[in-house]
Amino acid sequence: MSFRAINEKYLFPASQILMVLGIVALCQPWSLNLHSYGVTIILAGLIGFNITSKIAPEQSEETGAAAHEGARQ
Q1: Taking the model in full, what pTM does it have?
Q2: Among 55, 61, 56, 18, residue whose Cα is nearest residue 40
Q3: What is the DSSP letter of 63?
Q4: How far is CA 47 from the centre of its chain?
Q5: Is 31 helix (H, G, I), strand (E, B) or coil?
Q6: What is the pLDDT of residues 4-56, one digit of tens each?
């Protein structure tokens, strides 16, 4: 499994989940420690999202006209 496939399958969704968890941590009323680190968690997810979104996904082996011909059949 290549780094691009790992990024697409695990890292990109993990950064999105981390941002959502940071929002939940910031809005919950039970734990002061979790609330204190809410913005830090959001920023870590945002930085991860910015990095992982710049990595292009793996391209299929067939490109160009050959890929379109195979899709039509």
Answers
A1: 0.75
A2: 18
A3: -
A4: 10
A5: coil
A6: 999 999 999 999 999 999 999 999 999 999 999 999 999 999 999 999 999 88
